[in-house]
Every structure is written in C-alpha cells, then in structure tokens.
Design goal:
By secondary structure, the chain is an alpha+beta fold. The chain contains 17 helices and 25 strands. It has two domains: 245 residues, Jelly Rolls; 249 residues, Transferase(Phosphotransferase), domain 1 (Orthogonal Bundle), CATH 1.10.510.10. β12 and β13 form a beta hairpin. The radius of gyration is 53 Å and the shape is rod-shaped. The protein starts with a helix and ends with a helix. It binds 2-acetamido-2-deoxy-beta-D-glucopyranose (4 copies). One 2-acetamido-2-deoxy-beta-D-glucopyranose binds next to β14 and β15. Its main location: membrane.
Amino acid sequence: MFPMIRGALLGTIWMMIYCVCTSFQQETTFVYNGFDQGDHRIHLQGGAKIIPKKDVLQLTNATTTQIGRAFFEQPIEFKPSEPVSFSTHFVCALVSVSEVSSHGMAFFVSHSTDFEGAEPSRYFGLFNANGSASTRVLAVELDIAKAVDVLDINDNHVGIDVNSAVSVVAAPASYFSDKEGRMIDMKLVSGDPIQVWVDYEGTTLNVSIATLHNKKPSRPLLSSTSINLTEIVQGRRMFVGFSGSTGSGVVNQYVLGWSFSKLMASLQKIDISKLPKAPHPINKRNYTSLLSDVLLSLLALFVLGLLFGAYMYRRNLYAEVKEDWENAYGPLRYSYKSLYKATKGFSKDEFIGRGGFGEVYKGTLPRSTEMREVAVKKVAHDGEQGMKQFVAEIVCMRSLKHRSLVPLLGYCRRKHELLLVSEYMPNGSLDYHLFNDDGPTLPWGRRFAILKDIASALSYLHTEADQVVIHRDIKASNVLLDAEFNGRLGDFGMSRLYERGADPTTTAAVGTVGYMAPEVTTFGPSTGTDVYAFGVFLLEVTCGRRPVELRVPAEERFLIKWVCECWRGSSLLDAMDPRLKEFSSGEVERVLKIGLLCANLAPDARPSMEQVVQYLNGNLALPEFWPYSPGIGALTPTTLSPELLSLESQSLASSLSNTSMFITHTVLYGNGR
Ligand SMILES: *[C@@H]1O[C@H](CO)[C@@H](O)[C@H](O)[C@H]1NC(C)=O
Ligand SMILES: *[C@@H]1O[C@H](CO)[C@@H](O)[C@H](O)[C@H]1NC(C)=O
Ligand SMILES: *[C@@H]1O[C@H](CO)[C@@H](O)[C@H](O)[C@H]1NC(C)=O
Ligand SMILES: *[C@@H]1O[C@H](CO)[C@@H](O)[C@H](O)[C@H]1NC(C)=O
C-alpha cells in the first residue's frame, strides 16, 4: 500500500513540476492583438489602464507629471546557463491632447517592479537624476520632448537607456525603406500607430520602428554592440512592459498590440487587422480647428465664387461683337472697356441726353498725354443684318470734312448695341437752347449764324462730298453747339440703320413727324426731303417752337400752316419767337420765307441746298411767291393724319410707336418734355 501512495505522491509532484514548467515555457512567448480588461496577466501601475471596449492599453491619462506602467505579470526567466536573448514587437500610438506634448513612453526590461524613487517627465517613470539606484533597467524610449540635462538629441527620437535616462545610443525617429533605399523620417506624436521592434542576441541590441503598414525594416534604426546585458539580465527573472510619463505637457500613450518572445524565432506575429484603434479625442482644440478649417474652406469657396463671378461679370460687361470684316476698320474700333471706363460705366453723371437713336453719354478718353472728351451714343440694335453696310457707311462718313459737321471718331459693336463715338459738343443740342424757357434766349444773330452753318453743312453733304449724302433727319435736336455756339450737324445717315431694320414695312416711314416731306413715304428719302426738313428747321429756329405743338390753339398747331397764316394776315413777323428782342426784320422775314419755300409740298418747287445757302447769305434774290402760291403753307399727309389731330398724346404715342421709334420720339417732344 505504502509504495502505491508514495508512487501516487511522486506522480502528483512530477505532474505539478511538469505543469509549472510548461506554464513557464508558455509564458516566455506571448502575443496581444489588443488588450482585454479582464486579463490579469497585465499588471497596471499609476495612471495606466485598459480602456474598456476599446481594448487599448493607455499609460497616462492626460494628467501632468504623471507616470503609468503596464507590465507582464510573469517575469521572464533568463537562466544562467543560457545565452541572453529576447525579441519584442509592439504597436503603440502617441496622441497629442494639448498644445505641448511630453514626454513619451518606453519599453522596459526590469529586474524589479518596485520603481521607488523613479520620476516622471524625462525619466519615463523608470529613472531619476541618479540613474536607477534600486534596480537594473534596460529601456527603449520613444521621446517626444528634448530635455537638455539627459542629453536628448531632439524632441522626436528613439534611444536605448541602460540604468539611466541618458541614452547609450539615440537616433531621430525614422525608418529604413527598402523601396526607396533611404531613411524616412517619422513623427512619433502624430497619433498614428507606430511599430517598434526590439531584438537582443549575443551582445547586439537592435531597435527598429516603422509605420503601421510597413514591414520590419531590413536595417535597424539603432544597432548597438556595446551593450552587455549579461550583467543586468543573466540568471535573473526579468519583468517586461511599458512605462509612460508626462511632464508639464501631456500626451496620450497607447499600446495597441504586443508580442514578446525569449527566442527571436518563436516571436508570434501581431495581427495588424485585429488591432484596436487608438482613440483620437475630438477635443475642443481639434473641434475648433476642424470648424475653422470648414469655415476657411467655405470662405475660400465663397471668395473663389466671387472671383469667378466677377470674372464672368467683367467678361460679360466688356463683351463685344467683332467680325472679320471689321478688321479693315481697326483704328476706328474702340474697345467697349475703354468706352465703359471713359463714361464711368455709363453713369448717370455722364448722361448728356436721349437722342433719336439712343442715349448719349459724355466720355473722357485717355489719349496718351492729352485727355480727349467724346460723346458716346448707345444705339440699341437688334438686327445684325445690314450692320456691315451700316458700319461701312459710318466709316465712310469719317471722310466727310466740314467745319459744321460733328466729326465721328469711331465705333464699337456689342450684341444688340452699337456705340458711336463722336467729338464732344460742350453746348449740347440746339433744341435745348430753343425750347428751354429758363435759360437765356439764344439771340437772333446767333440763330441766324447757326442756320447758315447748318445750311452750308447740308449743302456740302448734298453736293461737295464724294457721293451725295442724305441726312434724313434734319431737326433742331440733331444740331449741336460747340464751345463757340457754332452749329454742328450731327447724326447724319443714322436713320439708314433703321430703314434696314428688322421690319421692312417701316422702311419708308423713318424720319420725324413734322419734318417729313410728303413724298418720303412713297419715294423714300432724297436731297429734296432733306430740304423740306431744313425748311421746317428754319421756321422752328425762327419761331422758337416745334413744328407740331398740341398745347396751343388749333390754328397755331402746325407751324408751316401758322407761319403762312401770319403772312396772309397782318405780318409774317407775328410768327417769330416773341422772346427775340433785337433782330433784323428783313432777315427774319427772309428766313421765314426760305423756310416756307423749302417746305413746299411739291418737291420740284423746293430750292436746292446750294441755293438756300445763297438765299441765306443774301447773295441770291428769293423767287417771287405768295402765301397763296401752290404748295406753300400746306401740310403733309403725315402731319394731317386725323389721329394726330384728335388723339390724346399718350395713345398717340403708342399708336405711332409701331411705325418707327423716331416718330414716337418726336411726338413725345411735341407734348413738351
Ligand atoms: C488619472 O489617473 C490618476 C491615477 O494615477 C487618477 O487619480 C486620476 O483621477 C486620473 N485622471 C483622469 C482624468 O482620469
Ligand atoms: C541622488 O543621490 C543623492 C546623493 O546620493 C541624493 O541626495 C539624492 O536625493 C538622490 N536623488 C534622487 C532623485 O534620488
Ligand atoms: C541587428 O542588426 C544587424 C544589422 O542589420 C544584423 O546583422 C543583426 O543580425 C541584428 N541582430 C539582431 C539580434 O536582430
Ligand atoms: C559581458 O559581461 C559579462 C559579465 O560582466 C562578461 O563575463 C562577458 O564577457 C561580457 N561579454 C562581452 C562580450 O563583453
């Protein structure tokens, strides 16, 4: 019985020894792909903890001058008979949580777990200023703060410490890339996971780091042959683990995975895909910086949008229409931009008036040194057809040189718009001076001189120019006054643009009511129709009123008829402008008679402009004629239209507006502006 008991006892002891041995064997190699809170094999000290659910080992908890340690509870036995070696591979992350990050963390191999006297900050919770008095410690530090007294090389380095915070060897954090064949810098406190390998065999200690998805570098970052761990390790049981510390700044040190083995060959692989993620706290600073980033990008987008809008606006603003055929008129062509700038963007301040063809603006063009004042007329124009010929004619008219013509300087073309640039006439249009009751009355002498100016200009157009030029729209508002109040004829030939307008039915109707000779509607414009209009103009200037005036007694409404009535009655001078005080009655009577002669209903009975000039200058006697002569003082069918006599001005304007913009325009004039 006794031997049986003895045997059983022995068996149990053997079994126990076996168990203990195998357990020792098992514990010399382990791997963690993340940490479990319930795992008691990891011993925690100080601020260290395993974050529940996140499976991350955190060393310090964002508290200043703090220490946190975590180590494998079972010490690793280094037998005196065996050569010392070990291998470890871990993945950690240093996440910045404040403006200043310090100090980092270290992997350690320590004889004792009692770190009495060890200090935080640059001592990593493992050493103090005197080294490590009570214990034997090997540490591999990931240091993110530069401490001068422990001879740190920079604030981003890896070092090997033996019993002291002063590293035996250290190097700036970087790894060797096989692909690129060079060292690549790494930022330890980037928050990204860092792989660290520490291998010791013989007397060589190698340390490598790399980013998460890199292989173990073929060349270690630190390789030291001068470290003889035999004294520290051999024949002892050593604890392995991590220690982190903070100083005046803090940093979150996380360990995500860890593999350790006494033998390099039996080191187990960390499964990168199973590793937990290092918590990245969206703290206030990050949040505000994120917010400000978003705001900044929005602002940038907004500014970009504005710039693009401004670009498109400018592009649109200055857009022109230019065709190949216009190249021939190169020097005459003004850029819209220059006109836009000259007229200060066609501002109200530069607005001169509304002519028959469009709005007129004053512009100041910078011409090298001398500034030049111009008038820019904006003519709305829809039809592109006929534009070529019109521009050609406009250009041709530049060759017309007469002191009483307003010189055309050039043009610019845009979609739906033609801009004509001519010399600026500082005293505006004659009709303003004639019909403006407020200002001083234009004296007779001046009026007579202006009439002669215009007669001479028109005569020039009809006879002396290379080809006969018909003005088509003689009237007071188309006569401009220069600085010396000389009359200048403007807008010649402009109505041709409208004759060729989109609506062919309006062709013959262009002109101005009251100035239109009766045959215009049937035969179109001719020098004779110009003479007719000039006759009306003579009467208009002498009588100081418009050819059709709806606000006066019925018998006075139509100027031609009224002048003739006066002649038939007591005196021709009754028709003249009552505001004229000093005048030569002979001149006035002659001008009125020439006016009636020119406005003869029959084209053949009208004089030529050459003759008119001579009549005005008194070089030629007027032909004999009477108020009862045929065609004298008769109204044209246009002015006699029943609508004009009976309709209210407003409806009149609209009923005639279809015919041509000119007619509409003048009827509005007739109502007084
Ligand atoms: C950090 O850990 C210490 C223990 O070292 C503890 O007293 C403290 O409350 C912790 N602070 C935070 C913010 O968790
Ligand atoms: C370092 O050693 C000196 C003298 O041996 C001692 O006075 C001092 O307190 C020690 N410092 C630390 C931090 O242990
Ligand atoms: C350390 O690195 C050197 C150089 O790459 C290599 O020859 C040696 O085998 C390495 N030793 C260990 C223990 O990894
Ligand atoms: C390491 O240290 C031990 C004990 O001091 C010594 O016996 C051994 O020769 C040393 N090894 C080397 C390579 O210096």
